[in-house]
Amino acid sequence: MKDKEDKAFLAQVAALIDASEHAGHPLHDALQRLYQRHCEQQVQIQRLIDISDRYQSLAMEARQVTEQRYQRTLRRQQKLSRISDGFQALIQERNQALHQASTHDPLTGLPNRRLILERLEAFVRERRRFTLTLLDIDHFKRINDCHGHDVGDQLLMAISHALSEALRDYDVCARWGGEEFLLLLADTDRNEASTIVERLRSHLAEVTIRAADEKISVTVSAGLCQHRPGEPHQTTLKRADKALLKAKQAGRDRSLSDAF
């Protein structure tokens, strides 16, 4: 509204200057010079406004370009971050799988020799009391020969599952090799271990699997040995193995303890 009024006022001034009847007026020349100076200043002001508008437009374009570059860089970094996270998760998963493969038996999922030997070394180092038990499935070779190794593997998995369920949380059950299992009974003396092992043997005798139309169950022999303070774990293992051999020689389906 003000611009419209200003334009109307300037038009009146221009009309007065151009009117011939005012040519001799004392203020005519001064008003004409003032009007011309105003018009020149308006042109300069408009030029400055145009320059400012162009600068602001260029600045906005530059800002938009910078913002677009930033967004592209940000998206690229986010993509790289997702790829890196996925790669790290894959590495962690592979490491866990490698650790599992190096410390657990692939068939039964039980700890293997390496892991239980590490636990044994730690128990000896910490001077903790424990009893070792070697379990052996009686006449396992006969099952493999009569029914095949697939049935034998099924039986090993069933026995392993039963052992894992029956033992205490702080005990360790490992597949020692073939049809043998090694139990690390923590904070347990020979008498307590004998009770635990007899209960385990009764539990394992109830485990059955099917081979064709036949139900298969087994008995186990066990050799127990309580660790002696200061004794290397290898020596304790040898004593447990001797106790197992005596149990098998005595007719199997029994547990015997080595003298403490």
List the helices and strands and how they pair.
Elements: H1 2-18, H2 28-103, H3 113-125, E1 130-137, H4 140-147, H5 149-166, E2 172-177, E3 180-186, H6 190-205, E4 208-211, E5 214-217, E6 220-226, H7 233-249, E7 255-257
Parallel strand pairs: 6-7
Antiparallel strand pairs: 1-3, 1-6, 2-3, 4-5
Helix pairs in contact: 1-2, 4-5
Protein name: diguanylate cyclase
GO cellular component, one term: plasma membrane
GO molecular function: diguanylate cyclase activity
Structure keywords:
transferase; alpha+beta; 7 strands; two-stranded antiparallel sheet; Alpha-Beta Plaits; rod-shaped; Nucleotide_cyclase; diguanylate cyclase activity; 260 residues; Rev_trsase/Diguanyl_cyclase; 7 helices; 2 domains; single chain
Strand element count: 7
CATH architecture descriptor name of the largest domain:
2-Layer Sandwich
CATH H-level superfamily title of the largest domain: Reverse transcriptase/Diguanylate cyclase domain
Secondary-structure-based class equals alpha+beta
Proportion of beta-strand residues = 15-25%
Main sheet properties: 5 strands, mixed
GO molecular function: diguanylate cyclase activity
Protein name: diguanylate cyclase
Keywords: Nucleotidyltransferase, Transferase
Pfam families: GGDEF
Question: Would you mind describing this structure in some detail?
Answer:
- Its cofactor is Mg(2+).
- This is diguanylate cyclase.
- Its EC number is 2.7.7.65.
- With 260 residues, the protein is an alpha+beta fold.
- It folds into 2 domains: 1-103; 113-257, Alpha-Beta Plaits.
- It has 7 helices and 7 strands, in the order H-H-H-E-H-H-E-E-H-E-E-E-H-E.
- The strands form 2 sheets. It has a 5-stranded mixed sheet with strand order 2-3-1-6-7, with helices on both faces. Strands 4-5 form a two-stranded antiparallel ribbon.
- Helix 1 packs antiparallel against helix 2 and helix 4 crosses helix 5 (149-166).
- The protein is rod-shaped, with a radius of gyration of 48 Å.
- The chain starts with a helix and ends with a strand.
